[in-house]
Design a protein that fits this description.
single chain, 7-stranded mixed β-sheet, 4-stranded mixed β-sheet, 11 helices, binds 5-S-methyl-1-O-phosphono-5-thio-D-ribulose
């Protein structure tokens, strides 16, 4: 499986996603500040992977703490969590992972654990978050494969693959699941301006897996749909509100509108950790605005004239009526999402296609 992120003692190792596909370079983060910087600068990206990185970052950060008493250790822990929370605002998996680390800390402290024992507990929680993410992706892949036709031309946007998770992927997990079930799948990958996650990362992953992949520029999707060349759309998510409104990479909303216009089912694949019932609807999802340079420059070369104003919102929100189903490790949720998502957290029942 693709080595997105791993722990080697007190070092977090990540494949540098900014350099792919030209070079396979691994970044070794020795401190929590280095992990936070890696998230911010997109060495590692994708909602679930960001959550895993944050948990591992907190774990190695606390391992290095010299505090001997639990009070000082707790103060350092909260500062470390704040540092992580300030990296990227949209992917709720980041805050979900930090919350899990806080709960693990609190449970250990309340049980009277020593500083060293709390460190062990934090290590374990980070490992669990990593391992559970891989298992979730595999489960959602199996559920999602059920809605993929026996022969399917699937459009995806951004990279919701092994690189965006601890492994296997969400949207690409569904595609991998379908291929493993013997379905004949061909993928159209939107290039995904400005960071080119589709052209660089999705295409790299799928080509490595031997899954036929065609890269298109974002503006080509509508024409392909009109020609009848797309059977379904599957994308990932950074945050899903209680009513099903879904934040994902900028451009996803346009794809969803086009899919609706052409009668093509539009699916979102994401782990339960991406569902944020505390956010009522998409309007309340914070959208990250990234540096103008990502738009003005490509490969170090300026594309736009000096003086032109630039916008770079990194995500948009797809309203829930455009979404045919939300594929998770618990099954596929269908509209009305305000009920199905709530029930998904309350019951142990797995929802089938
Ligand atoms: O800015 P990025 O590359 O972190 O954005 C990633 C996406 O929008 C993905 O589609 C999303 O996080 C789902 S990843 C399984």
């Amino acid at each position: 499986m693709l080595p997105t992120i791993a722990r080697e003692d007190d070092v977090v190792v990540m494949i540098d996603q900014r350099k792919l596909p030209a070079a396979e370079v691994y970044v070794r983060c020795r401190t929590v500040v280095e992990v936070a910087r890696a998230i911010k600068t997109m060495v590692i990206r994708g909602a679930p992977a960001i959550g895993v990185a944050a948990a591992m970052g907190i774990a190695i950060g606390m391992r290095r703490s010299k505090a001997t008493g639990t009070q000082k250790f707790a103060a350092e822990f909260h500062k470390t969590c704040e540092l992580m929370a300030a990296t990227r605002p949209t992917a709720v998996n980041l805050f979900w992972a930090i919350e899990r680390m806080k709960r693990a800390f609190a449970a250990a402290a309340e049980a009277g654990a020593s500083v060293d024992q709390i460190k062990e507990r934090l290590d374990l929680e980070a490992t669990n978050i990593h391992d559970e993410d891989v298992a979730s992706c595999r489960a959602m892949g199996a559920f999602g494969a059920a809605v993929v036709p026996a022969e399917a031309r699937i459009l995806t946007h951004c990279n919701a693959g092994a690189l965006a998770t601890a492994g296997y992927g969400t949207a690409l997990g569904v595609i991998r699941g379908a291929v493993e079930q013997g379905k004949r799948v061909t993928v159209f990958a939107d290039e995904t301006r400005p960071f080119l996650q589709g052209a660089r990362l999705t295409a790299w992953e799928l080509v490595r897996d031997g899954i036929q992949t065609t890269v298109i520029t974002d503006s080509m999707a509508g024409a392909l749909m009109r020609q009848g060349l797309i059977d379904m759309v599957v994308v990932g998510a950074d945050r899903i509100a209680a009513n099903g409104d879904t934040a994902n990479k900028i451009g996803t909303y346009s794809v969803a509108v086009l899919a609706r216009e052409h009668g093509i089912p539009f699916y979102v694949a994401a782990p339960m950790s991406t569902i944020d019932l505390k956010t009522t609807d998409g309007q309340d999802i914070p959208i990250e605005e990234r540096s103008a340079r990502e738009v003005t420059h490509l490969g170090g070369r300026r594309l736009t004239p000096v003086g032109a104003l630039i916008r770079n919102p990194a995500f948009d929100v797809t309203p829930h009526p455009l979404i045919a189903g939300i594929i998770t490790e618990r099954g596929i949720f269908r509209p009305p999402y305000v009920e199905s998502l709530r029930l998904g957290f309350e019951s142990e029942v797995v929802v089938r296609a």
